[in-house]
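Run log // design_07
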């Protein structure tokens, strides 16, 4: 399902997140104070605007409450990053993801109410975009350019059904390699008789085309 994203900051990290989300079929708006960056990314996303994200008036004009997720990808200006996040949270933004440059910066962002703090060195732009695109994805490990291991929260339509009944291997070419319950117990190499329960995490491996059909990448 297509979602609306606002990415603030069109540097390397922000551009990577924005263009990947757009390629995944989402409505993406990018804001940057630098006109050349705005011009450069304008053809790769739905909307690209020049604006100062630390300006309350500028953010207000964007209608921040309308976006499903806002990614604050501002560069090394930590003060601008923090001020932008504070304004977004005060304006009622639904879900704010912010880039942090240091552990201390990350702690500050968490304390002011940022929903998810990411460190580019640990969480590359494209991986973040995929995980944001499908909220049920808990983690994604790229095995190769064509296959991934994903950890997803069991979709409602799978709850109460056995692995044999779902038959993911035959239908999609996806192998469930483990199930993790709410209480943290992990079932390695589950059998066909195992039932998926509400809140279970499914760890599965498959090629990207198969996982995309499931909405898991």
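design_07 sequence
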């Amino acid at each position: 399902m297509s979602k609306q994203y606002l990415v603030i900051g069109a540097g390397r990290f922000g551009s990577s997140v924005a263009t990947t989300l757009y390629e995944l079929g989402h409505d993406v708006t990018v804001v940057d104070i630098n006109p050349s960056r705005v011009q450069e990314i304008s053809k790769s996303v739905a909307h690209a605007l020049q604006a100062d994200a630390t300006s309350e008036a500028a953010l207000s004009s964007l209608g921040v409450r309308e976006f499903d997720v806002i990614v604050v990808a501002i560069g090394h200006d930590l003060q601008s990053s923090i001020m932008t996040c504070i304004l977004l949270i005060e304006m009622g933004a639904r879900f704010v993801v912010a880039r942090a440059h240091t552990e201390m910066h990350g702690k500050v962002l968490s304390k002011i109410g940022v929903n998810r703090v990411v460190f580019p060195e640990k969480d590359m732009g494209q991986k973040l975009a995929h995980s944001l695109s499908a909220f049920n994805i808990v983690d994604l490990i790229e095995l190769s350019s064509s296959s991934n291991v994903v950890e997803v929260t069991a979709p409602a339509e799978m709850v109460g059904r056995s692995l044999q009944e779902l038959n993911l291997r035959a239908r999609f070419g996806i192998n469930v390699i483990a199930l993790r319950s709410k209480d943290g117990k992990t079932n390695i190499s589950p059998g066909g008789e195992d039932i998926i329960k509400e809140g279970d995490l499914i760890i599965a491996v498959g090629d990207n085309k198969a996982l995309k059909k499931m909405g898991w990448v």
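The chain has two domains: 4-133, 137-213.
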